Sequence to fold (156 residues):
Amino acid sequence: LNVCKQYGADFVVNYAEKNWEQKIKQYAPNGVDVVYDPVGGDYAEKSVRLMAWEGKYLVIGFASGSIPAIKLNLYLLKGCSMIGVFWGRFTALHPQANASQLRQLAEWHKQGKIKPLVSQVLPLSSAAVALEALQQRKVQGKVVLVTKHYKKQSKL
Fold:
């Protein structure tokens, strides 16, 4: 959570703690505007219940291994939207828009406007080590795998 604060989060909550929903309700009594959910599972419905009117629930993936079944009446009652964010399909359907967005991200990185958090840079031969670290939740940010031809030219 400290990393989130360092990167500019106004408010953080540990969803593993009891009453995490109450903490969010105290911080955002009218609900949250956006939920970015790469996990799915047991927290999905609780997150929808915390949505603000006309909020956006972004379905990114199901890292928990469980695809939630959420009652659609919640979206009606909250007046909120569920949006599937499937980047792979987007790149296939809109390659020019994707390329434009990647150029913009690269420019923001060059200007220092965005600074990705890279926990480790490992050789490609250590991919199994990187995956294990991810699975054990020992990574904050990204693990970058590089080939033997990699030459550090700039900060990642």
